[in-house]
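re: ur question from yesterday

yeah so i grabbed the chain u mentioned. its 505 aa long if i counted rite. heres the sequnce exactly as i have it in my notes:
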Amino acid sequence: MAQQLQSINLVAPAFQGINTEDSPLAQDTSFAEVADNAIIDRQGRLASRQGNSVITTNKTALGTDHIHNIHEFYDSAGNETIFSTGNNKILSGTTTLTDVTPGSYTITANDWKIVNFNDKAYFFQRGFDPLVHDNANGLRTFSVVNSSSTNATFKCNEVLAAFGRLFIAGNATNDTIIYWSDLLDGTKFTGGSSGSIDVAKAWPNGADKIVALAAHNDLLVVFGEHSIIVYSGASSPASMAINDTISGVGCIDRKTVQNIGTDLLFLSDDGLRSLGRVIQEKSLPITDASRNVKQDLIAKLKTKTSPATSVYSPENYFYLLGLPDSSLIYCFDLRGRLENGAFRVTKWPSVDFKSFARDRNGDVYIGTVDGIGKYDGFDDNNSSYIFRYTSPGLTFGDPSKLKLLKKIRPTIIGGNNADIILSWTYDFSIQANTSRFRVGSATPGFYGVSEYTAVEFSLGDLISRKSLNCTGNGSVVTVGLQTEVNGSVISLQEMNVLALIGKTV
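ran it thru and got these structure tokens back, copy pasting raw so excuse formatting
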């Protein structure tokens, strides 16, 4: 009697994102070892990310530099201005980057923090006079101390617009003092109801410095490198009081702080953290938003020399963490946490995305050496990128027995004439067996979506089911596929793996 084939059906492969922390043999098959240039789409499938559709056609003012910051200023009359920084200049526009740095004002830094407040845009950078813009008077310098440009007190690196004021911190001489402006006047930091507070003695772990400021649930959150102070009553800052302190956890890059509505996300030296979980667990947090890529991420942080960047997009349900030094983006899916408290995560490797911003319409802007682009389409400035998936180790319930792989049956949605490379390895060999096939052109179809047990009508999306023969044998099987994304979305619905189970090895 012929031996019966055994199968593993990977429904919505990589539904839980990548896991580089646990042993490949100990992982649920809904994880992935590799999920590159991918997102978890709304149907719970691993799908190709969108690309960078470059808007800029004239980047002369940028020179050979890249876009370091992007900011949307939107005034009460409905006028929009996109500001950016690069080449030691303040730039405006998207199609053409125009140098709007005030005349006779020389800057030698690009790490500006820009906020909107009371119908104006304010620009702060340590060591430089702040700038203010409104659409009536344009961009100009202002000095907040007796019209003197020599006073360094208010030449700060961090600024927060909240509670009807500007809060600033991080000047060159003292990085523990927070200054706040007069009510509704972002240029007035002396007199009126302006004031300051020195948090030096409030750090729970001794000496620290202010990295970032944030507002959340009527609280002022002060991030140090290794600790956090939370103040209540910030609407009347002269009388605000410490609500909570957290030691052992802080923020290492101010541009990674994002308000996601119900929580604040920020990058610590040991991974991505959420303020809510940290407050709940205090100085010994056991849940980590980046737990499934923790060591991988920490290794990247130890070698980085330029600031990390981030953006939160509720429209795409993701938080993007960019590490420009590594040409790497971590994409955290925010639709829910896994059992271990982590977010589902995928990677976007080999990308030159230097900065991000989200505008009021939900568009995600991307800053690169080419200027400003949008998260749109399915190519990176007319260049393709590789969508890649690799499964964890598959043992068919018994890692001690030999597997003779016979067939792999992938179900792929989209792609539109894409060439697919299907791969399989045994016992984690670096030598992969491969088989190639091409999906056809798009046709309408129905398909059951596993995550929501619903039927999706995909107008114009091709559904490709293939059955490919395999060779070789080993104790542990790893399967995967990759394809070049160049103009159309592709997603992986299912992979059915069939094997004969042999003798004990």
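noticed a couple things. Residues 145-150, 443-460 have pLDDT under 50 and may be disordered. also The radius of gyration is 26 Å.
anyway ttyl
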